[in-house]
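User: Predict structure, ligand flavin mononucleotide.
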Amino acid sequence: MRPSAPAADADAYPPPVETGGAAARRYHARYGSVLPAIDPAAGSTAPKHHPGVPVLPLPFPPALPPAAAGPGAAADPEWLGALLAPLNGVTRVGWGDTGVGAGRPVPSGGGTYPAEVYTATASGLCHYLPAAHALELLSPADLRADLARSLARPPLEPPELLLLISTRLTANLARYGPFGHRLQALDTGVLTGQALTLLESAGAAPTAHALLAEEEAGRLLGLDPGTERVHAVVTAGPPGRLAPDAPLLRRRTARSGFEPAPVAPADLLTVLDRASRPVALDHAAPVGCDLYVVANRVTGLEAGCHRLDPRTGRLARVAGDVAPRDLFPPGGPGELAGFEAACAVLVTGDYESGYAEYGDRWYRMLNLRAGVLGQRIGLAAARAGLGAGLRCDVDTAAADAALRTPADRTTLLAALLGRERGSGAPVQHLLCPAAPG
Ligand SMILES: Cc1cc2nc3c(=O)[nH]c(=O)nc-3n(C[C@H](O)[C@H](O)[C@H](O)COP(=O)(O)O)c2cc1C
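Assistant: Predicted complex:
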């Protein structure tokens, strides 16, 4: 069934004028907290490209690590290519139900990839073309200082590199209807999380900015604000050795399902520990995100719902009478996946806590934060040798009831974890991890 028609004006999202949270509340009640009507036959809109501008091919596969490091490295095409491929490029060829396809290092709701990546360095402003692994040169001018001025809280030192993450506003709406806007915010968070992981591992002290003058940043990038907007900016200092490891390059959704086998509690705790570390954002959350586990088959952990205590890093039991499959609508693919999974990890947050300070944009900021945690959960699971799959098809009301979330807190995102069935769907990985060093 096709998703409902675009929202009427009163429900317009993103809201054309700031309403202090009223528009975001309306959107969430009508579309964001309701199970998406998914039209699997609908495609996503074509990725962005800028006809007529010079295209600079980047070496593929990139040398990992690239030779360059330190001040000036970020302007080196080889270094940029070595960052962008594991950020959002094509890292594998896979064979699935629908045939052969290219795979990316980051997950994206429905594989629609609504986000675009722009780079600002001393060498100019570029747009990344993932499929071609090339840069479109939008301007040879150094626009870093102008772009940094669009940030509400720019870094103290002028950034060496800015990664501007935009969203194509209609990219996934044919498939998801207006729910797609919330999914876009989660996707922005996933990509932002990947940028932070890569740049942190290279010692470039990155910060992700969600507080920015979107119109000004979009104007500098030449975007049409009606179709594409900058929703996050990651700033970074001079990088050291950029050497993504094998799990980062090989992460993928566990499409073959899960073995009905238990996972070790230490693996689950490692995932939770990595997910709950502080996120280098330009703003504090008035109320932080909480992590819950709904355990099915975790050795030594009672089945049921547990909440991670962020102070002790331990799981506290919440309720016994819930299994991962109960978080999804009966009869749907989520229920089946939940039945097989060893456990579900859920991210919850509080919308009401942030509207007073941040206005409507808090809605997006909170989902961005959940997306960062989702990226970390997927990557930490891959590092622990576990299969994982992010899911937005959670029945929010059922999940909130199962988790017994306190008032105003709600479920934002779920990830199912377990041992992937067999050896997974056939895949050819295209990038080789750097030698340790
Ligand atoms: C925010 C988000 C929500 C997702 N929700 C679902 C979901 O509800 N069901 C599902 O099967 N996959 C879901 N996915 C996984 C994507 O379908 C998957 O990432 C995409 O098809 C690309 O495949 P890959 O992860 O193997 O690279 C979600 C991914 C993200 C980032």
